[in-house]
Amino acid sequence: MDAHTALDSLPSEVVDRICSFVGPQDLVSLRLCSRAAAAKSLHQFGQKCFAYNRFLLTSKNMAILEAIAKHDHFRTVVRGVYIMPALFEGMYSMDQRAFCQWAAESRPRRTLYPSGARRDDLEIPDDKLREFYPAYKKVVADHLDIVFSGRLRELLAYCASRFPNWTSVGLSHYNAGRQDSLNVNRLLDCPEWRDLVSRLGCDPASAWHSISPFRAGDPNVRASVFTALLRTLIAPGAENLALEELTTCQAASRYTSRCSGLMLGELDLSSEEQELILARLEAMKLQELHMCIRDFHRQKHPESYSFMNKIVSRVSPTLTDFRSTRSPTHEGYEYAKQQISWLSHNTSFTSLCRLELGGISTDVDDFKRLLATAAPTLRQVTFWDIYLRVDNPPAGSEEYARLGRQQWRQVWVWLGENLDPSGITMSSLNGPGHGSLRIRDRLHGYRGSHPIINASNVGLYIKEKSHVSFKEWISQLRFEKLLINPPESGSIDSDELYSE
Where would I find the F-box domain in this sequence (predicted)? Predict the structure, then answer.
């Protein structure tokens, strides 16, 4: 074909194929060439730019979401809608000085500068930051009005009736400008994010940190937004909505621990609404569920955790991917243990292929019971920050450590007898008394690796790279015994470093 052939003369199928290799930004430019090019590239443009989106809670973003819902074609390609609930890390009452300090310390603000600049050496002057303060106040007022006036709930209900292929919904706590470093799907984008960054001099959607305190003076917008998402399921016109994924975090798995998750203090749902939502989720046959919860002991409504557990219980038979991250504080461990115990007796993971559990407190029997129904189908497993608890724990740190090692050996024996995963990762395993245990892998894990993979507190098994079975690998794991005065090299047998 002649290289100078006009794009307009090519068949629609050929143009569509060409556009499948073009990035979203270049596709926008291509569509400006002619009306014919715009028409022939409409499908790929919708798939690349509107299939999956994250939306900040601002009037402009909500207007974009509404415009997508009204478009006859774009509304049919939408598959995922993720709401970024909180701006400015929930700090909505900062004075000018506090705002300037927060903006100056916000690392994502450097996205204002060209990518070729040395961003670590560039700073925004204080006088410039003060000029952004009125914009901050305006954005906060607009943001909170959307959350608490009912506008968000009404818009989501409208979208539920207009998006026939909507399958994924949830919250997102990571800013849109760091998709590569966070390993988030490149299809996810956030409209008007760059414009908002330029108007504020900083990134208003920077990630919440897990160490961020619960600010009693600020409204818990995350729980309020999640409530609006759940009410969408039972809104008039949402009868045909068939979700496959529900998430409270939408973070890549290896960054889950950095998300501050969902605080349930303002999860304001009546008992009638809860039952309708549970029945709706069960009927949808949900496949993926990610539940990230923080701060057990500071909540106004502890019964909200029971509702979240009921969600897991009702949808567990159809789940293929389940990720649960909980962050009980020291005062909340006993309550967290009760929650996991309830789940272990009321769930049936008969289709589960991938499981990630983090930040949970449980005992050996409940832990094994929770995994028992999933064992035949489970293929990818991640355990991190797991606390095995006991009633009436012994006194003394050495007794704590010995008991922790014994408990985890029981779990490992059970896993070896009941699981055949393609991959498993274990890290930050803890015994009673919050004692972290260091895993030691003497079988070298898999070919081509360092002789000791797990010299710290991480255990890793990959079936396709391993030269041993999972049962053989997990049966030889030991816990490294920490010695205050390590002996000289060669003066003690290596087996004496392990204690069961």
Answer: 4-35
